[in-house]
Design a protein that fits this description.
With 569 residues, the chain is mostly helical. The chain folds into 2 domains: 3-280, no CATH class; 282-565, no CATH class. Helix content is 64%, strand content 2%. A hairpin with a 2-residue loop joins strand 3 (408-409) and strand 4 (412-413). Helix 7 crosses helix 8, helix 8 (170-195) crosses helix 9 (223-232) and helix 18 (454-469) packs across helix 19. It is globular and about 75 Å long. The two termini are 28 Å apart. 55% of the residues are buried.
Length: 569
């Protein structure tokens, strides 16, 4: 664990913190419908789009109306993306001459990108045409991210507003988030990426002559534009199969640092948006502190595990000075790879610059743990914030039980209805991950897709369903997922992880927004200090431990304990 590695990590995290306040302030203005510095440019387009949608599309909605609009919008997006994949063989902008995508793979991919998961059971450069990549996948990168941020706005309003049953308007929120936040940031970042060497072209490929004199075909395409929004929107779907380990998606250490910043920037800044909109910036800093404690803790463990090298390879004479370099880019090394791994799984991004399958057991355990904690540190854009606010509701309820006082959070009383809905949402993750993994572990057709047996093979299964249900999309790289079983079950897991979770969360918001916001008294539990931060952190870790520790013990933990014995699977 070198000084240079610490400096790399410190630089990126400071860059993330530096943008929390300006980004958070800007998004608060966007959610409030106020004028922003971009309004002179995008306001005419915003008005035009909403006018085309009709007057009713701008009227405030109840939580149920908002949720139905969100579900219909995403259903249409799913149908469009499925159709464009199936028909890409007869559509333009297909210089590679690809045929239509297989029906089950098209189903899996469509639900993947609509749910902000971006799980890829295919090689982008060998399966998807330029039209599919741009009009299908990249468009959903924007819309799924905007949907998550719109839902976060509803949860914030649930605490900020009082005595109303209106939570905002889905169409207005999605339009404003796209035009005022995601699109301008993506344009700027894409230009920076292209300047750093990422391709942005409609050419299919170029032919090159290798040093040995052989001919090599190098795939090209509109990479920079897709790369920017896949990271800023915590989507993660790569243009190339190797994702951010591919030199065209991640050319230099500078782009690597910018990519990690882009993964974390909006999700971290939304905590400040939350604080500003509820009228107490300290509330946002408290939530961000919880996120930072868990994320940095996971980072330290992952880097420590990778920096020590693999003792089995050391015994064979491999110099451990550089750490465990299997599956990693020499350009980045263990420190930047560990930081990228925890950033991409602490959010719902799923982009990778190294193969998590090749991490040491404890190193690979950290990305798996972060996904199973609910992807709330800091989580996907929007989904991380409303996810951790559900945990905060659970925390104040537990604290209220301890002192015999009616629990409340930000002046809103937390009662039986909210607790039932919160527990329903929390049960989605373990029920889906453990349920599907248990069935897959007994099916020969599913086991045939594993590259390894024993605890490592179990980790591959757990990782796949955790990635799908958590809407992450990263892969452990040892699972052949493009089979009927995994295309269907992972697709169902993605759907439940996104919409099965969101519906009860929206119901919580609908229940809270109608309540009158009370004022703090001497007996009110403060939710902006160290005690609250510690309690929320403990609840997150205890929930994850109770739900998943047996599975962890049979997977990465036992594999770690077996390594000194020389046993491999």
């Amino acid at each position: 664990m070198t000084v240079f590695g610490w400096l790399q990590i410190f630089f990126v995290l400071v860059l993330v913190l530096a943008t929390v306040v300006p980004f958070g302030r800007h998004m608060a203005r966007v959610f409030a419908g106020e004028r922003t510095f971009l309004s002179p440019i995008v306001a005419p387009l915003e008005r035009g789009l909403l006018t085309l949608a009709g007057v009713r599309a701008r009227a405030p909605q109840t939580w149920l109306g908002y949720t139905i609009a969100m579900l219909v919008f995403n259903a249409v997006g799913f149908a469009f993306l499925y159709a464009i994949q199936r028909l890409q063989g007869v559509l333009p902008l297909n210089p590679q001459g690809f045929d239509g995508v297989d029906p089950l793979l098209a189903f899996n991919t469509a639900i993947s990108f609509v749910t902000n998961t971006n799980w890829q059971a295919y090689g982008g450069e060998t399966t998807m045409s330029h039209l599919t990549q741009m009009a299908g996948l990249t468009v959903q990168n924007f819309l799924s991210a905007a949907t998550g941020m719109a839902l976060a706005a509803v949860m914030i309003r649930a605490f900020a507003l009082s005595g109303t049953d209106r939570v905002g308007n889905f169409w207005v929120d999605v339009t404003r988030v796209t035009l005022h936040v995601l699109l301008p940031l993506s344009i700027v970042l894409a230009l920076v990426f292209v300047a750093c060497g990422m391709p942005q072209t409609l050419l299919a490929s170029v032919d090159a002559t290798t040093l040995e004199g052989a001919k090599q075909t190098i795939a090209l395409g509109p990479v920079g534009s897709q790369e920017a929004i896949k990271l800023l929107g915590t989507n993660g779907g790569g243009f190339f199969n190797a994702n951010a380990a591919h030199p065209f998606e991640n050319p230099t250490p500078i782009t690597n640092a910018l990519e990690i910043w882009a993964i974390l920037a909006i999700s971290a800044a939304l905590t400040h948006t939350f604080g500003r909109m509820v009228g107490d910036a300290r509330q946002g800093w408290a939530i961000l502190s919880v996120m930072a404690i868990i994320l940095v803790g996971a980072l330290v463990v992952a880097w420590w595990a990778e920096a020590g090298g693999n003792p089995l390879l050391t015994a064979l004479g491999v110099d451990p000075a550089l750490g465990n370099m299997e599956g990693k880019e020499v350009r980045f090394g263990p420190a930047a790879s560990a930081l990228y791994a925890v950033a991409t799984t602490g959010t719902s991004t799923g982009s990778v610059n190294s193969m998590h399958e090749s991490f040491m057991p404890l190193g690979g355990f950290m990305p798996l743990l972060l996904m199973k904690l609910g992807e709330i540190v800091p989580g996907g854009v929007g989904s991380g914030l409303f996810g951790i606010l559900v945990i905060a509701v659970l925390t104040v309820f537990i604290a209220g039980l301890m002192v015999g006082r009616t629990p409340e959070y930000l002046g809103k009383k937390i009662e039986a209805k909210e607790m039932k809905l919160a527990m329903l949402a929390q049960l989605i993750l373990p029920a889906t991950i453990l349920g599907f993994a248990a069935v897959a572990a007994m099916l020969p057709t599913a086991l045939a897709s594993l590259a390894n047996a024993g605890p490592h093979g179990l980790t591959e299964l757990l990782y796949a369903y955790a990635s799908a249900t958590g809407n992450n999309g990263s892969a452990f790289a040892g699972l052949s997922a493009n089979t009927p079983w995994f295309d269907v079950t992972l697709g169902i897991a993605m759907f439940l992880g996104r919409f099965g979770y969101v519906v009860p969360v929206m119901a919580i918001a609908g229940s809270l927004v109608v309540k009158t916001r009370g004022t703090a008294s001497a007996g009110t539990f403060p939710t902006h200090g160290g005690l609250f931060v510690g309690l929320v952190t403990a609840v997150i870790l205890i929930l994850g431990g109770l739900q998943f520790f047996p599975a962890f013990a049979l997977g990465p933990i036992v594999e770690h304990l077996l390594i000194p014995t020389g046993q491999t699977f």
